[in-house]
Amino acid sequence: MALIDVSSIIQLAYFGSFIVLMFYGQRIQISMMLVGVKRNLGKLERLRKAAHDSVLSSALRFKGDQKAVESRIDRLTGSFAIQPVSMDPSGIVGKLEHILDTYDDNLRTEVKAIATSATDAEVNTLSNQMEISIGADQMYRVVRHFYLLARKQGGILALYQLQMAMPQIMEEADAYSSAIDAFAKGNPIGDGIGPLIASKMAEGAQSREIEQDTIMYETGLDGRTLLLVRAKGPGGSVGKPGIAVEKLIEQNSPSLVVTVDAALKFEGEPSGEVAEGVGAAIGGPGVDRYHIEQSASKRHIPMIAIVVKMSNKEAISAMTQQVRLAVDEAIKRVKNTIISASKAGDTVIVAGIGNTMGIP
What we know:
The protein is of the alpha/beta class and 360 residues long. It has eleven helices and seven strands.
């Protein structure tokens, strides 16, 4: 009799749970998903505040009025750049370049107004910190938007999309979190591997500025003339390597262009692995790559790319030992490439692409 009663209770519980799930399963699922997203939203909010506080703390070192500085930083945090219209693609690179230059100039002008006694290098570093704060704020706003939309409308499709994107968003947020301290202290970051390699290859040579925040060294290798290009440090700057290389191609008619940069590694690949390829190794929106490709292809100049692989987190946080150890191997690859792909008497351009934070 007791056995029958237990069996009946189990059956009743089974049917009861089935009915609950049938009518309320989606609501339960949405509630559980919202809880997970809300937890991540809290992490993004803390990241946003940490980035904001880091910029504010760095700016106040230059003894500005705290309320005025904080007000300007809050206003800058919500700034944005509108992409040019692409319905007519002709000339879009020039339009994009103009918008990006205007945005960068405006950001620097605002930072100079915040830190009036800062040097150019310090202004560049503060601008980089400001960009991290802007990026963290945008991530938080986007996730909050979809979270509130899903909670308001019960839109499970929007919530599914957000949940699918959350691992990638949180990985990006983790990278930003690691970058805050490195940029505040002005330490070299993983993305600075290209300029670091160019500097080591140019040891003993004098530099000269050939474009805004972009310098060049002239040295030699086995009878070849090397023109080494990189952004100006030690403030955080990527310079204008595309325009600089384009100018040098027009002035010197090189036989080879070599670009050295950081590259995102695939999962399972070791950090600091050096790889070779063809083309222009340069990230970003594509403006600088366009200048290099356009000028080199017009004159049929081979383009060789050498990259050092790392994760996104390693690229924007303090340079790791694994990445530093790749410098000598990368220099060896660059030199071997130059010797095998050119001859004595040739001129070769080597562009070290990347952010010069902490690299003089």
